[in-house]
Specification:
heterodimer, A: mainly alpha, 15 helices, B: three-stranded antiparallel sheet, two-stranded antiparallel sheet
Chain lengths: 325, 462
């Protein structure tokens, strides 16, 4: 298994290199650092000195790929590409535009992000899988039909509506929980209840339908008919046979997002004023803080690749036929 | 407003949109000639949900088309002037149709159908004194003599008139369909192959609602006005075009990339497959929103640094919309590409492809004649399914600040602007409600159509 893991990690390297090159091209080749400086400092009436100062402060004054002026290895290392792009491989992200260290900021904000994302994920999975199993249990009845209708309607509603509507109804009209904010310790559930609930509700429509389709495909297999012929009760068929065999497609869709939970949810965090990575990203985007956006892109792809590896590992847990080779 | 002539303007998005519509029509004609494709589409039409969704989408499409015919009106000639000068502002046919809604601007917020403003202002009394009161709106209900007494009655009479027009349109459609279906009885019993009754019912609902809205819009701001006093009904209808553009133009980028790369990877295998798989794994591994954010930020810098490229504000926001579609397309072709690659892998091993290869049919011909047509069902399903997701994504992206130009009417900008006012008491809810309801209807119709299309085209039989 370790040999397999190492090999998978080796495969990940070229992909991360690709991500790195792509973001570098996006941020430094499409627009030169001069363009960005002009944009940040206001397009009109910018002195060349101001641009130069902006670039020096952020370390954008070096050549992009090859430094003629430097000596020896410095020709390659004293470049924007080395400083801003390659350093990310050792998780050295540098400083944001406001001077704060990005890596430290990320460490601090991971906690609140997880506090929202993890309960949302677990609860959401539980609710949608149970709902889908229920629909499958009552398949081809009016309950199933209307369940699907509700799902389609729910997935046609904008996620912004759930958040705005929930905040309005629960916090503003009923005064059940604070409208936004975040507190640690025992205070946390009060702030987390509403965002977690809305996150779960927002995902019900599409996820339930997706699981229902998987279960329906599984339930028409021969082994299910055999089980029924043996006199196995319908509930045992559902949980013991259908759910178990549907695990592979479910894991394919689910495991890959687990590492990404660290990134938090952009919209929910920003609406509820939770100091997590999602709101950090949104603030960075709105303030056009390119260093932070670059760092988040890199972290996001690292986590995605970790998720892919975890997915493959998880298959061995549910399907004895899958082996590492 | 166009009394002095006009000059047509074709914005880039207009050109792409009409190109896409033309492609759609050509594709439709092609499908009409092929019995098996015709059967698939007929299966879509046999389902009541499919017909209903298509009617709703066609109405939205009509609004979008009206709003995509752009021109610049000529200014009234000054004395001694020989050549005509055109206004810098680009207007659309929809703007002309809704001329009064566009120009009847209040000072600030007003509730739907209100006659008085939403916030108190200092009003001058006839005797020279001053009082804090809700002032009468300049346009909303301006035709009423006594705004408090006649208000309800006037609204009811507008509603009745509008509903009557709607019912008339519905009866007209019923008559037309009866002739088309070969008799009233056949139409009422639904004996025709396609679900015309469902289409007619949907049309009736749409006609009555639209009739009432239009009738009310003659004297009031049906959905109220926003912060700067613009009519929300007008803004909502303008948003439809943006949503349609995002939902459809993105496919102009997605389809060529996904089809070409998916077929190449699946058919040739080897290093071609490796390169293409590498490409989409890299793109896939970046979280979608972040990639879009990065690209849009860079695009903003680019547009901001080249103001000389765009003659009018409309052209600039149009360029931004097109760029957004492009970016969304570049980031979202990977899923379809993977599906097509997998299907091509299966197809290339089938007997008829093997036979064609053994006969020495050129590869390009095999791909175009034998592989591509057998992938089209996947493409069509993916096309319809992506549409609703894109419409919903636009609102979120605008909220994050990486959507369309803030000056362009879209569901996202409407929601974003209204969000700030939620804390106000009493609440300003109408822009939000209008945007959400229109978006819901559009996305619901698209989702229903997607389901029906998937059932009809999926060879596994859904």
């Amino acid at each position: 298994m370790w040999a397999y893991l190492v090999r998978r990690l080796m495969y990940a390297l070229p992909i991360l290199m690709g991500v790195n090159l792509l973001t570098f091209a996006l941020f430094f080749v499409v627009n030169t650092p001069d363009d960005m400086a002009r944009m940040q400092l206001g397009v009109k009436r910018v002195t060349p000195e101001a641009i130069e100062r902006w670039k020096v402060e952020r370390g954008y004054d070096k050549p992009l790929f090859f430094n003629e002026g430097a000596e020896g290895g410095g020709k390659l290392t004293e470049t924007v590409f080395f400083d801003k792009s390659l350093r990310m491989f050792v998780f050295d992200f540098g400083a944001a535009d406001d001077g704060r260290d990005i890596a430290r900021e990320i460490q601090q904000r991971m906690g609140p992000s997880l506090a929202i994302a993890l309960p949302t994920f677990v609860l959401g999975l539980f609710v949608t899988v149970s709902f889908a199993l229920m629909l499958v249990f009552f398949r081809a009845t009016p309950l199933d039909f209307w369940g699907v209708v509700v799902c389609v309607a729910m997935m046609s509603i904008s996620s912004l509506f759930y958040i705005i509507g929930g905040q309005w109804l629960i916090s503003k009209v009923w005064h059940l929980v604070p409208i936004s904010g975040y507190g640690g310790g025992l205070d946390a559930p009060r702030f987390l209840a509403l965002p977690v609930m809305l996150g779960v509700i927002g995902g019900i429509g599409s996820s339930t339908r997706w699981y229902r389709t998987i279960f329906l495909e599984e339930i028409s297999r021969d082994y299910v008919r055999t089980a029924r012929a043996k006199g196995v009760s319908e509930l045992t068929v559902l949980f013991g046979h259908v759910l178990k065999n549907a695990m592979i497609p479910i894991l394919t869709g689910v495991v890959v997002v687990i590492p990404l939970l660290f990134m938090g949810s952009l919209i929910i965090e920003s609406f509820f004023g939770i100091p997590g990575l999602g709101s950090y990203t949104i603030d960075a985007i709105q303030a056009q803080d390119f260093a932070v956006v670059r760092a988040m892109v890199f972290i996001g792809s690292v986590l995605y690749i970790v998720g892919l590896i975890l997915t493959d590992l998880s298959y061995t847990l549910v399907d004895p036929r899958v082996r590492f080779e | 407003m166009i009394g002095h002539g006009f000059e047509t303007v074709v914005l880039w998005t207009d050109a792409c949109f009409f190109l896409l519509l033309a492609a759609f029509v050509v594709g439709g004609m092609h499908a009409w000639r092929r019995p098996h494709l015709r059967r698939s589409w007929a299966r879509v039409g046999e389902r009541p949900a499919g017909m209903a969704a298509m009617v709703v989408l066609l109405v939205f499409l009509l609004i979008g088309i009206l709003d995509s015919l752009h021109f610049r009106a000529a200014l009234p000639p000054a004395a001694g002037q020989t050549e005509t000068i055109y206004a810098t502002e680009v207007t659309s046919v929809l703007d002309v149709v809704m001329h009064s809604q566009r120009t009847d601007v209040e000072r600030t917020y007003s509730a739907p159908l209100a006659t008085h403003a939403f916030v108190k202002e200092t009003v001058e009394l006839p005797d020279g004194g001053q009082r804090r009161d809700f002032p009468r709106l300049v346009h909303g209900g301006a035709h009423l003599e006594d705004a408090t007494q006649d208000h309800t009655g006037d609204i009811v009479s507008h509603l009745v008139l509008g509903a009557a027009v709607g019912v008339g349109l519905s009866l007209l459609a019923a008559a037309g369909l009866s002739v088309f279906n070969g008799g009233v009885k056949r139409f009422v019993r639904g004996e025709a192959q396609l679900a015309w009754r469902s289409a007619w019912l949907t049309w009736s609902v749409v006609a009555v609602v639209a009739g009432m809205l239009v009738s009310l819009a003659q004297g009031y701001h049906v959905f109220g006005t926003d912060k700067v006093g613009q009519d929300v009904f007008y803004l909502t209808l303008k948003s439809v075009r943006t949503a349609l553009m995002i939902g459809t133009l993105t496919t102009l980028v997605t389809l060529p990339l996904a089809i070409a790369l998916g077929i190449l990877a699946g058919y040739f295998g080897g290093w071609v497959d490796d390169v293409i798989q590498y490409l989409y794994t890299v793109l896939n591994s970046i979280p979608g929103v972040l990639l879009i954010a990065a690209a849009v930020l860079m695009m903003q810098v680019f547009i901001g640094n080249h103001p000389e490229w765009f003659a009018t504000a409309a052209e600039r926001s149009d360029a931004r919309l097109l760029a957004l579609c492009f970016i969304l397309g570049v980031t979202s072709w990977t899923g379809l590409c993977r599906l097509l690659r997998g299907e091509t892998l299966k197809l290339r091993e089938l007997e008829y492809v093997q036979a064609a290869r053994a006969f020495g049919v050129p590869t390009v011909r095999i791909l175009l004649r034998h592989v591509l047509p057998n992938l089209m069902h996947i493409v069509i399903i993916a096309l319809v399914m992506d549409f609703s997701g894109l419409v919903l994504a636009e609102a979120v992206l605008s909220y994050v600040g990486i959507g369309v130009d803030p000056n362009m009417a879209s569901f996202g900008t409407l929601i974003n602007a209204a969000r700030m006012e939620l804390a106000r008491d009493p609440m300003v809810w109408w822009s939000l409600a209008a945007a959400f309801v229109f978006m819901f209807v559009l996305v619901l119709a698209a989702n229903l159509l997607a389901d029906v299309v998937r059932d009809a085209f999926d060879p596994r039989g859904g």
